Structures are given as C-alpha cells and as structure tokens.
Amino acid sequence: MHGPPGPPAQSSTAPLLRVSVEHRGLISLVHVSGDVDASTVDHLARAVRHALAASHAVVLDLQHVTFFAAAGVRLLLQTRQSAMKVNTKLHLVGAKSVMRSLELTGLTGEFTVHDTVAEAVATLEPGRA
Predict the structure, then answer these.
(1) Closest CA to 89 of 118, 49, 55
(2) Which residue among 5, 11, 59, 68 sits deepest, i.e. has the most Cβ atoms within 10 Å of its Cβ?
(3) What is the pLDDT averaged over residues 55-84?
C-alpha cells in the first residue's frame, strides 16, 4: 500500500551558484547569481581568474547574489590584489547582501562599485576612464 505521492524531491544537483562570463571588447562581465559561500566560491574563483587573464577590465555583476559569506569577501580581496598585479581594472555591481558584507568588514572604499552593469561598462569603455 502506497499513499498519495508527496511533493517532488528537490534535486541535489541544483546549483546554488550560477556564473556566466560575457566579453565586450576588452571588458569581461562576470554575472553571478545565488549563494557565494565556502561550498561555491571555488566555482566563482575559476571564472574570475579566467576573466582577469583575458581582459583589461573585469566587472563582477553581483546584483543577483542572495547570500555573500566571508569566503566571498576573501575572494573579492584576492581578486582585487590579482587585478592590481596585472594592471586590470576591477569594478563591482553589487547586491545589498554583498554591499552589506563589505560595509561590515570596512572594505566598501576598497572597490569601485556601480549601481548597474551599464554604468560600470560605460565607465570602463576606452576614452572614458
């Protein structure tokens, strides 16, 4: 005897973090959505490393990040340092969760932050910055 079927099981393979990279000339846009924490940060780190290697400027679009743990803050600091070493500009487009983490750690002033991707790209286009 079986009872009525329950709700569908949630897939354990559903990603907690989605990352996509878009190239616009010499600018790489890294779009991020979901949770950035110890279990997902390596996925984001790989995409960021590739973007830094392929571009003169990187925009991290974090507008759709829902949770941003200390691992994400560490990655931002490491990315900032790596970008400085290779003379690559790094700009952030941030969600409230990301900006709150930066505020709590006193790091807001360490990054160039924009409200929109379009604003970040316009700032980085040749002849603008």
Answers:
(1) 55
(2) 59
(3) 95
Residue 104 is inside which H or E element, if any?
helix 96-104
Which fold does the domain 17-124 belong to in CATH?
Answer: Transcription Regulator spoIIAA (3.30.750)
Q: How far apart are CA 58 and CA 89, in angstroms?
A: 6
The domain ranges of the chain are 17-124
Q: In 9-39, which positions are buried (b, 16+ CB within 10 angstroms) versus exposed (e)?
A: eeeeeeeebebeeeeeeebbbbbbbbbbeee
Q: Please give the pLDDT value at position 94.
A: 84
pTM, entire model = 0.83
Q: How confident is the model at residue 95 (pLDDT cuts 50, 70, 90)?
A: confident
Instruction: Please state the rounded mean pLDDT for residues 52-67.
Output: 94
pLDDT confidence of residue 48: 96
Token pair belonging to 74: 């560490």
Extended strands (E) in the chain: 17-24, 27-36, 57-68, 89-94, 112-114
